[in-house]
């Protein structure tokens, strides 16, 4: 394992300390490891919090700030945070208007957020929760834990954060978050494994000429392992199941999000975006907005994911609204 | 009779086992999960052992509840709430007790599993820690009814848990991250069932003389 670290057990704490120092104008980091918007709580504003295992940076801590999250709860690498963190974050951002928890659909995340929500409600805070489960690589059935929460989470945090910033109440932002979930689909792939610092070796073995289609953001195996193909072919392998799932139809306007998994050069992400544009053009699906870059990563994994969100005027307006966070910034 | 000190020895033995098998548990988890089970359980049990030293009164119930809440606060993932609820559920039946009979321990153990079932919502056969815990629960209860001594009873429970753990190998996971693999999860031993076997075996080891 080759990594820029001091000690595996210090990775999360030292990264958080670095973030706090680099972005002191936007965020503060408090015990027990929560990233809080610098001027939170804000009276009358609904608090938006999310959280999950570390290793997906800039998600979620990098999305704390004006127009997005009020707090984030980073767990150990690839491990959901503990209820104490979500409870502390909920209290830290509650301005009296309630708090929305945006939860990615993983067994551990769900259990820990549920415990925290119960504790917060017992302390008199109005808490709602929406689960993001947008990964079409996973069969959504009674026989699985359900679809994983992946790229759609970033878009949900931006859109819901903009609505809360504009003064929407808890019921409204909760319904809006569900509406994002209902209109967003994603799928990812990996060229290489990631390496969890404390594990010290790659999470999975993969041949030099192989790729994993449908991979999760923790190196979870996906739908199939196959021989490497061209960027155009791979993009089609991800885009087609996404398009067919919702389904996205001719004339739909979408936000097209091409996300790097952490170890993919930007030049390759643009090759993918070019391929995706051609596929969507061919289907008559209009890219009205886009996002290209590393936003929900999987440590050092090489690979990418595609997320498509079907846009309406409300989503477009909220997407365009100003945002000022360490990881996403425009309009300010 | 199981004394307060025996409960401490059990928990410490489990912590030592998890530390010793940390890499193995994480390897099992990297095959079908996310490669952190040993790391997370070791962090949690290390914290639990630290807390035990600070408990002043020999109350088995509050000791087990402290172990559970410490796991919830330190482990994260699914294992934190699941093992946390196990110990808290056990502790709830033993509040104020300095000793437990085998039947009382079997009842507490079953209550702990009830906590796991409530929060995990898994069914037998889903390829989870229940595969090891449920046979151990039944073996303990049968032993208690037949007035078997504590040490041999835990040995029976550990044997049952081990068999249940090994039976997870061909199963297709229906809960947790392993379920994403579908059929590809078959052929791998479940890491949660493995740590649960260690939990039961730790009692058998710690109480072999009882």
Which pair has the most extensive contact? A-B, 35 and 32 residues
Quaternary structure classification: heterodimer
Distance between the termini of chain B: 7 Å
CATH superfamily of chain B: DhaL domain
Supply Rg of chain B.
Answer: 16 Å
Mean pLDDT of chain B: 95
Computed CA radius of gyration of chain A, to the nearest angstrom: 19 Å
> What's the level 1 CATH class of chain B?
Mainly Alpha
Point out poorly predicted stretches of chain B: none
User: How many beta-strand elements of chain A?
Assistant: 14
The biggest beta sheet of chain B is recorded as: 2 strands, antiparallel
Q: What is the overall number of helices of chain A?
A: 8
Tell me, briefly, the overall form of chain B: globular
CA-CA gap between termini of chain A: 40 Å
Question: Could you characterize what this model shows?
Answer:
- The complex is a heterodimer of chains A (332) and B (210).
- By secondary structure, chain A is an alpha/beta fold.
- Helix content of chain A is 33%, strand content 23%.
- In chain A, a hairpin with a 3-residue loop joins β1 and β2.
- In chain A, α4 (152-165) packs antiparallel against α5.
- The termini of chain A are far apart.
- Chain B has 210 residues and is mainly α.
- Chain B starts with a strand and ends with a helix.
- The model of chain B has no long low-confidence stretch (mean pLDDT 95).
- Chain B has nine helices and two strands, in the order βαααααβαααα.
- Chain B has a single domain, classed as Serine Threonine Protein Phosphatase 5, Tetratricopeptide repeat (Alpha Horseshoe), CATH 1.25.40.
- A two-stranded antiparallel sheet of chain B has the order 1-2.
- Chain B is globular and about 45 Å long.
- Chains A and B meet through β4 and α3 of A and α3, α4 and α5 of B.
